[in-house]
Each structure stands twice: as structure tokens, then as C-alpha cells.
Amino acid sequence: MRSIPVVFIALSLSGFLSPAQENPAVRGNAGIIRNCVIAETRGQYCAWPSVVRAANGDLLVLFTETEEHLGPDGAILGTRSTDNGESWEPPSVVYDTPIDDRESGITLLSDGTIVAHLWSTFHTRAGYDALARLSYEPSTLRRWSAFVDAPGYRASVDTQGAWTILSRDHGRTWSTPVRGCDAVHGGIQLRDGRLLVASYRRDSPRIGVYSAVMPEMNFTRIATIEPPPADSITFAEPHMLQMSTGRVIMMIRAAAPRYDDTSPRCVLWETFSDDGGATWVQPFRTPLWGFPPHLLQLSDGRILCSYGYRRVPFGERACISADGIRWELRDEIVLRDDAPNGDLGYPASVELDSGRILTVYYQPDVPRNAVQKMHPPDSARTKPGILGTVWVMPSRRPR
Q: Structural domain tally of the chain?
């Protein structure tokens, strides 16, 4: 369990210029208003945010704080803005077990209830031994192995897996955890009141679609979405959206063999359902390269997809579609292209007001062209924080 270090920095969006804000840009016909720091702890690794506008108007961001990407003891923290993203409260602990809590998707229900979808990983010495050939110092892996060998850690093995917690006061307090489904950016509540979640951890390399009746939340798998065998990819980290037409669309991350984040195969795939998630069309490849996806229907009806970009130039991107099915690279928007490496991403977007967007993500807050030693990672480097970009949607392009 942990408390928040006093070195946490909570900064006003309007009062702080991050390094990448020195030269605001207009790319893809979208106006970048400002970049900002939402949550950052010196020496800690902050990553994998989700964002939602609560029923009272607050913006709530949940994220993970840990030592490193594969550290053994992450915790879920939350921060909020009560002034439409102009400033952010210091974060507080939302969920923290003795093991590694590292995922916190959010679903907002029609009655204002917020559902957080959590995932906790139980690391082992054998798992860290397998990382010896990868990008961590032997001393770090030895220390982590000793940590997960401790009796208190081993005794917490039953806390691994997917959990769900609820808040009925706009994310101020949370219920006792119950078993649930993983959902990296959350699920959706259908018009018929059911909660629909697309999960990947328990069904890998495919996507499982689960439905639950509220408030019992007893999830039942109602569909499975298979990756195309000929493409040698794994499906992961999906996100869904029910459009105003009633159609449910799903964007899916494609993971290449040997976890190659720079592979040309790492384009987003899509499928959709017109019967509430029971059946889905054959997944099809989009031209959007990056991952994982987050979907948002804008007030003007268009669909926004946000995604990380883990190849040069590293950063965050988004794309707009008129119907949520047809995506074109000429509609792609470069939100950031100034990150020092590919340890970034998981952007999620919320509309602040008509046409003005806040996209939150994780990456280091360093000047453009900064050098960050990563193989193995330098423990003294500027580790990623939860950052944001406020930007203006481009106008509709004639078809």
C-alpha cells in the first residue's frame, strides 16, 4: 500500500508551459491550443490513463503509478478537474493491493454511476528471470524478484486478475471490489441498459465480448472476435462505442509476433455490431497505424479515434471519421511528435465543449530532441507522466 509522495506536481493547464508547448502547432487542420501536465511524480512511472466526464461535470482521470513499465507493485491513482480541465487536484489512491495493479478503464452509466475496470498482475521470480534477456538491469530484476518472493506478496496471489469497483459520488469514493472483466479504456452502457465490455486478457489472442445486467454485473460472454489467421497477429486492447444510430463499433489493437511495436502489422482493426453485440462483422484492417484505440462520438456526430504512435516520430495521434467505418490517413491529426522513445501512448479523449478536445496520454515531459536511455532504461531519466493536449477539431472536409 502507498501514500502519494509530496513531490507530486499538479499544475494548471493554463499556467504551465510544457517543453512541447513552446511552439504550438497546427497539424492535420487541427489547432493545438496547449500541452499540459495532468499528473507527475518525480522518479515514478505514471502510465495508462483513462478519462471520463462525470455526471456532475468533473473530469476524472485514472492511471497507474509504479516504478517501471514492468515493475511489481503498481497502484491505481485518480485525479480530477472541477473547472473543465484548467487545473487538476493532487491524485489520490483509488485501488492498491500488494501486487501490481495496472489497468483502470472507466465506464459511465446513465444514472451517473462510474464503473472502473481493474486488472492486477501477479509477478513471479520465474517471470522476471525470463526478462533477463530484455531491457532491464540485472540488479533491478534481482530486486524485483526478491520483492515478489516476499511472503506478503505471495499470499496475495488471489487478488490477481480482473476486478470491478463502483463510484456513486463522481469518483470520490469507491465500492468494495468484485470480480469483473478487463477493459483498458472501459466499456459502454447500451440503450437497453446492459453493460457491454470487450476484453482481451482472458480470451487472448481473440477478443471476448461480455454483457452484464445492471446492477448485478454478472458478466456473460456473448461473442468472440477472432484475429485473421493469415496475418499472424494477436488482437488486444479493444475499445467500443455505441453511436447515435445504435450501431456498436469496436477498434482493436493488433500485436505483431515477438511484440514488435514498430511492425507494419500494428494497424488498428475494426468490427461492428448492429444487434447489441451478439454478432459482429468480420474484422477488417484500417489504414491507421498505432495503438491502442480510444473512440469518442463528438457533438457534431463525427467519430474520433485516438491512438499512440510508437515509431519515429514518436507521439500521439488521432483521426476523424464521418461514419465510424471509413478512415483515411488524410484525416489523421498529429497531436504530439516530440517524445524521445516509444514508451508512451494510451491516449483517451473527451470533448470539453463544442469542437474543443482534451486528449490525455502518458509520455515523458521532456524537450524535443531530448535523449532518454532506454535499453536498459536509465532509472534517473525523466519517467513518463500523465500529460494532455487541448486542441480544436478541424472543420468538416468536403467529400
A: 1
| Tens place of pLDDT per residue across the chain (399 aa) | 564 433 333 333 333 333 333 333 345 557 999 999 999 999 999 999 999 999 999 999 999 999 999 999 999 999 999 999 999 999 999 999 999 999 999 999 999 999 999 999 999 999 999 887 667 999 999 999 999 999 999 999 999 999 999 999 999 999 999 999 999 999 999 999 999 999 999 888 899 999 999 878 899 999 999 999 888 899 999 999 999 999 999 999 999 887 788 999 999 999 999 999 999 999 999 999 999 999 999 999 999 999 999 999 999 999 999 999 999 999 999 999 999 999 999 999 999 998 899 999 999 999 999 999 998 999 899 999 999 999 999 887 656
In angstroms, the first-to-last Cα distance of the chain is 54
Q: Output the 3-class SS for 302-329.
A: CEEEEEEECCCCCEEEEEEECCCCCCCH
Residue 14: inside a domain, yes or no?
no
Domain that includes residue 269, residue range: 19-122+160-392
Q: Is 147 among the domain residues?
A: no
Domain at 31, CATH number: 2.120.10.10
pTM of the model: 0.92
Q: Return the bridge partners of 385, or none.
A: 363
Question: How many Cα atoms occupy the beta-carbon half-sphere of 237 within 13 Å?
Answer: 25
Task: Note whether residue 10 is domain-resident.
Answer: no
Whether 154 maps to a domain, the answer reads no
Largest separation between any pair of C-alpha atoms in the chain: 63
